[in-house]
Write a structure and sequence with these properties.
Blueprint: H1 2-21, E1 26-34, E2 37-40, E3 44-59, E4 65-80, E5 90-93, E6 97-99, E7 102-103, E8 108-121, E9 130-141, E10 144-149, E11 153-157
Parallel strand pairs: 2-11
Antiparallel strand pairs: 1-3, 3-8, 4-5, 4-7, 4-9, 6-8, 9-10, 9-11
């Protein structure tokens, strides 16, 4: 009988630890981008705009995590109209702006980042013209590199 009581206490202790002990990982979730869609002004050449993003971070490791750098990569996944690119073309932005730089052990925070974009629009678009981009965020930390799929971004021509 005492053996069953000891097993029940052990199971109870492990079960109680669940919400407090964590999974020992950096958990990243709820990636968002703003804007999800942007219309390039007609007759613009190398028009610059920023895409701002957020990502929820939950550091369930036993140590502090330092974010060394962040970058975004974009891949064309759909095109409509005339473009100087094709599906599958890729581009990237290195060393993008972000904060915070450090995630303490057991902390939860929202990481904010900004990635630069640019577009050119001849203004001669007789039909709807747009490109959809699949964006991936790369986060380089002192504990490894993390890749997060972000929502797609649509660039339209006026």
């Amino acid at each position: 009988m005492s053996r069953w009581i000891a097993v029940a206490i052990l199971i109870g202790a492990v079960g109680a630890c669940g919400p407090f002990c964590g999974n020992g990982k950096l958990n990243l979730s709820k990636a968002e981008l703003n804007p999800l869609s942007f219309t390039c002004p007609a007759h613009a050449t190398d028009y610059s705009y920023d895409i701002k993003g957020t990502l929820e971070a939950d550091n369930q490791t036993t140590g502090s995590i330092t974010i060394k750098s962040m970058a975004t990569s974009a891949k064309v996944v759909k095109l409509e109209g005339n473009w100087g690119m094709k599906v599958g073309d890729e581009s990237s932005a290195e060393d993008i702006q972000f904060s915070p730089k450090t995630l303490g052990s057991g902390s939860k925070t929202t990481i904010k980042f900004t990635t630069p974009w640019s577009c050119s629009d001849s203004g001669n678009n007789p039909t709807e013209t747009y490109a959809d981009f699949k964006i991936v965020l790369s986060i380089i930390t002192n504990s490894g590199t993390y890749k997060v799929d972000l929502p797609n971004h649509r660039m339209r021509m006026a």
